[in-house]
């Protein structure tokens, strides 16, 4: 590998200092309204002696709120005396996107979860990805990245990990998913795993756990409660925070193949025919897309390619060709 230049990001925290520090990852960003300005990404480091390191993030996509709500809260309330090891908290990873309330960055349109491994001499989003890739991920034993559906998707609340070629690593990730104890636990596959933070962490041999907790560009009381309890459970399970895992019933789901995804093939107004969490049979109509340009046109039907349960759906009332309309998962 050719030598990469150092990251331009300067942390204002010391990762090896005991106690709690609230600081920033300062990323120089020269622009019209601030010639020598910076993007100031909030970071909290909680360390108490030797032990494993957890790297926790929310706001990888800027319009997903359960993660940031749980992580700002954790940074404010966790007592270093209850910690053994280190917890690094970045509650709003793509901070420019988070401030704009958008999935991608308003500066460069960068989708953080398609920007890994990033570049130290790239766009703002690529520079943040590069810092996680080369500076933060190598410090971590367990990596937890919160997601929700954002403005365009809605999910049944689940914690998830991927099936991996390294079965020992996969088992550690699913053990952490079980500890999170969301109402649902998912064995997840990706539409396209290239450039994802998940993939970067897993290829480095890190235990990587994620969530999809609701969506629609907002949060709900129930999903925020799940996020707050779940992340403490994972930290307790990892032996980093004192106390017992608060057990709760979870239903395991599997995404057995790409047939679980259904995509719209027309623009129009979408009518959901099945609600989240409801059972579906193969061939059942999941949604109908109504043409709105004229009256008298029969709606297009989106049918389930497999039996299971509706795990995710398109959220806005209008849909475009190519949008993910529905995801069916199988209960195991
Ligand atoms: Zn996301």
From TrEMBL:
Q: Name one GO molecular function term.
A: hydrolase activity
- Stored Gene3D superfamilies: Zn peptidases
Residue ranges of domain Succinylglutamate desuccinylase/Aspartoacylase catalytic in the record: 50-237
Which cofactors does it use?
Zn(2+)
- Alphabetic keyword roster: Hydrolase, Metal-binding, Zinc
The main enzyme category here is: hydrolase
Name of the protein: N(2)-acetyl-L-2,4-diaminobutanoate deacetylase DoeB
Organism of origin: Mesorhizobium newzealandense
Gene name tied to this protein: doeB
């Amino acid at each position: 590998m050719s030598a990469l230049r150092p990251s331009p990001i300067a942390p204002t925290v010391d990762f090896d200092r005991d106690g709690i520090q609230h600081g920033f990852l300062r990323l120089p960003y020269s622009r019209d309204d601030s010639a020598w300005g910076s993007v100031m990404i909030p970071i909290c480091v909680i360390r108490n002696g030797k032990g494993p390191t957890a790297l926790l993030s929310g706001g990888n996509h800027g319009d997903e709120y359960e993660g940031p709500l749980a992580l700002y809260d954790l940074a404010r309330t966790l007592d270093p005396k209850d910690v053994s090891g280190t917890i690094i908290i970045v509650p709003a990873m793509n901070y420019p996107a988070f401030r704009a309330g958008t999935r991608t960055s308003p500066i460069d349109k960068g989708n953080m979860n398609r920007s890994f491994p990033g570049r130290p001499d790239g766009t703002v989003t690529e520079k943040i990805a590069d810092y996680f890739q080369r500076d933060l991920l190598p410090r971590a034993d367990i990596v937890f990245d919160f997601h929700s559906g954002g403005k365009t998707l809605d999910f049944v609340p689940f914690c998830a990990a991927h099936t991996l070629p390294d079965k020992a690593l996969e088992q550690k990730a699913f053990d952490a998913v079980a500890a999170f104890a969301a109402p649902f636990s998912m064995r997840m596959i990706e539409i396209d795993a290239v450039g994802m933070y998940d993939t970067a962490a897993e290829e480095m041999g890190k235990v990587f756990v994620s969530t999809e907790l609701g969506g629609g560009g907002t949060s709900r009381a129930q999903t925020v409660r799940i996020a707050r309890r779940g992340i403490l459970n994972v930290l307790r399970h990892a032996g980093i925070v004192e106390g017992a895992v608060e057990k709760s019933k979870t239903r395991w789901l599997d995404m057995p193949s790409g047939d679980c995804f259904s995509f719209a093939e027309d623009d129009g107004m979408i009518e959901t025919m099945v609600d989240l969490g409801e059972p579906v049979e193969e061939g059942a109509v999941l949604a109908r897309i109504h043409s709105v340009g004229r009256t008298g046109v029969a709606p297009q039907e989106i049918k389930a390619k497999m039996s299971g349960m509706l795990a995710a759906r398109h959220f806005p009332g209008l849909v475009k060709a190519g949008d993910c309309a529905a995801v069916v998962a199988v209960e195991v």
